[in-house]
């Protein structure tokens, strides 16, 4: 079965302790998208708190 979608929590999972993205994390998300996998951000934050991390 092929992976079609990855849902990732922001706080404590995708983001590091400084609320930033590590270069390896960015590369992994880009690789997943390049492979045709949809990447979904999951959070209890309101949309305004998630927009900064949305890919272009």
Short description:
The chain is built from three helices and two strands.
Question: Any overview of this molecule?
Answer:
The model has no long low-confidence stretch (mean pLDDT 90). The longest helix has 12 residues, at 23-34. The protein is 38% helix and 18% strand. It is of the alpha+beta class and 56 residues long. The termini are far apart. The chain has three helices and two strands. It has a two-stranded parallel sheet. The protein is globular, with a radius of gyration of 11 Å.
How are the strands ordered across the major sheet?
Answer: 1-2
What is the first-to-last residue Cα distance?
Answer: 28 Å
Number of helices: 3
Q: Report strand %.
A: 15-25%
Residue share in helix: 25-40%
What is the element string, with H for helices and E for strands?
A: EHHEH
> Would you count the extended β strands for me?
2
């Amino acid at each position: 079965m092929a992976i079609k979608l990855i849902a990732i929590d922001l706080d404590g999972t995708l983001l590091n302790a400084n609320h930033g993205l590590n270069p390896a994390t960015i590369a992994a998300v880009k690789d997943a998208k390049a492979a045709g996998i949809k990447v979904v951000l999951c959070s209890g934050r309101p949309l305004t708190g998630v927009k900064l991390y949305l890919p272009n």
